Amino acid sequence: EEKSAKSIQYDEAEQESVTVDSSPIAKLVSSIVDGAIDARASDIHIEPQGSDVRVRYRIDGTLRTTVNVPLSVQQEMVSHIKIMADMDISERRIPQDGHMTTSRDNQDYDLRVSSLPAIGGEKIVIRILNKDVDKWSLDEIVTSQDDNQKFRSIVNNPYGMLLLVGPTGCGKTTTLYAILQLLNTTERNIVTVEDPVEYRLDGITQVQVSPVAGRTFASALRSILRQDPDIILIGEIRDIETAEIAVSA
Fold it and tell me: Which residues form a coiled coil (predicted)?
């Protein structure tokens, strides 16, 4: 069930004195991020509305409104996040991507930040990535014993193609990396092509897509096929060419 929205209030003097380095804004952003981590959210949406800024968490694939922030602090919030994510705070006309890290309860998290210029101001979406991939287990994802055995049988098949599909925030990336952890042995050459590389895995060759450098999913996949791979992970199949190469591989 969707959580009810609540409003964070500031007195007039405090609102006028807020800057990107001020304690109220830093605490506000920190509380939003910490709340998302505690709720096991995959994404945070910070979006300006007509009279306020709506903050939503994506939990189990569903967006849930968690708090409404006064519109008067919207720009300060965005600027603070962009500074932390090493983004250009003076550029508000084009989308930007950034990255920052945080810790919560002795656990490290990567935060992937995306800004999008929109009517009313920039919208910010933050993807939350748990850096401790070593603790991921297929048993924690597929809890049914029968389903777990069937899934392991499919994953351990020496040949074939496994497609993992689903809506945003449903756990596709988590499941894929749990599978790689299961299959990652010194006897296998595992190569991935991703955009972006969300987690670093020891013992696995990970390739970052870079359209500027001419490295697309399709071109990277062609090169990987010449690297004597045992297992290939394709982060996304976005076009017919990539799909054809994947199927023929």
Answer: none
